């Protein structure tokens, strides 16, 4: 009898610990202080100012209107408040995620259909939620480094060249990579000079800011 009671209590304890691990906010919120809230506010404001232009760029890569980039940049952070386990990271869209969204959704006049992108995001979220509940994160360890490196390198080339049309102010450039390369070189004679000058000035300014700004000692 005592052994059966101990077994039930152990199972109940394990089930309770598992339930609490799914919602970590229950553990740390009672210990939250005003000083931590002030620091989090400053950190959130700083990250938010950086995320806005980044989210606009990711929306462009995904072929969506700008507001969808802002939605994806902030909604993940709101959900992570309740489900997150690390205080030092921020969630949001990435360049590769945006590229995959564009390549796996139907296009109309060079723009991604929003409904398809939303459904794709929902299904990806359901799959990740299921993997999280089943503790299947170890599967990622089976993906070899050369595969990840090759994939990210190819994505960087695709995304980087895809921005050349904006730098030169070209119009009517198709999204698939091979067609993008062909259209870009074919339409170089239609370059908008003010766009090109502004782009180069911004690139030089960013490079100078990166090289001349002193890094913090910490």
From TrEMBL:
<dbReference type="InterPro" id="IPR001902">
    <property type="entry name" value="SLC26A/SulP_fam"/>
</dbReference>
<dbReference type="Pfam" id="PF00916">
    <property type="entry name" value="Sulfate_transp"/>
</dbReference>
<keyword id="KW-0472">Membrane</keyword>
<dbReference type="InterPro" id="IPR011547">
    <property type="entry name" value="SLC26A/SulP_dom"/>
</dbReference>
<feature type="transmembrane region" description="Helical">
    <location>
        <begin position="41"/>
        <end position="62"/>
    </location>
</feature>
<keyword id="KW-1133">Transmembrane helix</keyword>
<feature type="transmembrane region" description="Helical">
    <location>
        <begin position="192"/>
        <end position="209"/>
    </location>
</feature>
<feature type="domain" description="SLC26A/SulP transporter">
    <location>
        <begin position="39"/>
        <end position="214"/>
    </location>
</feature>
<dbReference type="GO" id="GO:0055085">
    <property type="term" value="P:transmembrane transport"/>
</dbReference>
<dbReference type="GO" id="GO:0016020">
    <property type="term" value="C:membrane"/>
</dbReference>
<feature type="transmembrane region" description="Helical">
    <location>
        <begin position="142"/>
        <end position="161"/>
    </location>
</feature>
<keyword id="KW-0812">Transmembrane</keyword>
<protein>
    <submittedName>
        <fullName>Sulfate transporter</fullName>
    </submittedName>
</protein>
<feature type="transmembrane region" description="Helical">
    <location>
        <begin position="117"/>
        <end position="136"/>
    </location>
</feature>
């Amino acid at each position: 009898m005592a052994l059966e009671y101990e077994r039930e209590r152990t199972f109940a304890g394990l089930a309770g610990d598992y339930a609490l691990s799914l919602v970590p906010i229950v553990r740390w919120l009672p210990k939250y202080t005003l000083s931590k809230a002030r620091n989090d506010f400053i950190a959130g404001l700083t990250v938010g100012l950086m995320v806005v232009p980044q989210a606009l760029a990711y929306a462009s890569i995904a072929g969506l209107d700008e507001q969808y980039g802002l939605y994806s940049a902030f909604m993940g952070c709101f959900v992570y408040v309740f489900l997150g386990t690390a205080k030092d990271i921020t969630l949001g869209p990435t360049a590769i995620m945006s590229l995959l969204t564009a390549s796996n959704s139907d296009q109309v006049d060079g723009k991604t259909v929003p409904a398809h992108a939303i459904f794709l995001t929902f299904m990806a979220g359901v799959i990740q939620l299921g993997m999280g509940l089943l503790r299947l994160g170890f599967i990622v360890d089976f993906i070899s480094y050369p595969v990840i490196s090759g994939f990210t390198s190819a994505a960087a080339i695709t995304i980087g060249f895809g921005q050349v049309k904006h730098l030169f102010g070209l119009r009517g450039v198709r999204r698939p990579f091979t067609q993008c390369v062909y259209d870009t070189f074919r339409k170089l004679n239609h370059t908008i000079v003010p766009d090109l000058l502004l782009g180069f000035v911004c690139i030089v300014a960013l490079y100078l800011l990166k090289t001349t700004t002193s890094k913090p000692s910490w």
